[in-house]
Amino acid sequence: MQMAPTQTRLSTSRRTETCDPHHNISTWVDTYETHVSPKTIQSSLAPQLDTRLTNNLDYNSQESLESPRDSEKSVSHKLQRRLAKNREAARKSRLKKKAYVQQLELGRQKLAKLEHEIEKTRQQDAYMDLSNRVHCLLLGNINSGIVSFERKYDLWVVEQRKKESQLVSILQSGVSEDELRVFVDGVVNHYDELFRMKADAAKVDAFNLLYGSWKSPVERLFQWLGGFRPSEILYILMPQFEPLTDTQIVNLSKLRHTCRQAEDALTQGIDKLHQTLSQSLAVNTGEGGNYDTYMSATIEGLEALENFLNQADHLRHRTLQQMSRILTMPQVAKGLLALGEYFQRLRVLNSLWSARPHHMINS
């Protein structure tokens, strides 16, 4: 009788233990706290968390490093292209600026040269006016034809320098021979204009044209019958014509030989005239004679100078024409430039001689 209650109590307690939720939760917590402590969780989860975090950090760091590199490469490439474009633009700008400055400098030089020529012309005109007044005061009269020729000749020299400057520019620009011929003919025709001026002046006073002051003293020393000696000029200009063909050499030699023959004939004629005039002045000087008759004959002999001067200029004119036919246009252009430079140097030499220091004169 006593065993029954005990069994009943045990079964009741088991049933109660099984069905009580609070008891089960507390028992589970106690068990979990006993076997799975916080230290156990930390020790078991830490490696996994560390691994995942490390992987995530590596991925993020790699992503964060690779993306800026690619971006920097792209930016660097664009920057280099932009800098290259800027450098090219700056180079082109410098070249344009340099060309512009050169054009300005060239224009300034041309303007300065033109102003110098204008001023020189004004000074020459002023000098001629002063010279005319002095002659009028000293002589009481003056030959207006000679004065007009001298003034025209001064202007001719200025214009000749302009044409030669144009010819230099055209020759350096590399134009065709037909275009170059226009400027070459312009220079040759300008010489023809001088020959016509001299022919008109010879009618007025051939003696003044032959020995007058329209040429400087140094120029008169080198001139022949009022101008250059053609055979001598051909000899001086020969090196400027090179390279020459065999045919050109032969033709130039023939031309020079022909010029020398004509020069000798004219020189002999002027020497004969000089001898005749001397004899005319010396005849019967001791006997008195008719003075007026002798002077009239001498003046008529002097008038023959006009013919000699015209023939000499005709020979110079023909020489320039024949030279243009024998040579090519570039060769003729170089020859004309050398001829103008030769005359310019004679004028400069005369200026240097006139302006030489006094101690050189005294010594």
TrEMBL record:
**What Pfam families has UniProt attached to this entry?**
bZIP_1 (PF00170), DOG1 (PF14144)
Which compartment or compartments is the protein found in?
Nucleus
Q: Which UniProt keywords apply?
A: Activator, Coiled coil, DNA-binding, Nucleus, Transcription, Transcription regulation
**Basic and acidic residues bias located where?**
14-23
Residue runs in coiled coils: 97-124
Gene3D superfamilies in the record:
1.20.5.170
The record, for SUPFAM superfamilies, names: Leucine zipper domain (SSF57959)
InterPro entries this protein is in?
bZIP, bZIP_sf, TGA_domain
- Where mainly located? nucleus
> Which portions of the sequence form the region Disordered?
1-23
- What family is this? Belongs to the bZIP family.
Tell me what this protein is called: Transcription factor TGA1-like protein
Source organism lineage? Eukaryota, Viridiplantae, Streptophyta, Embryophyta, Tracheophyta
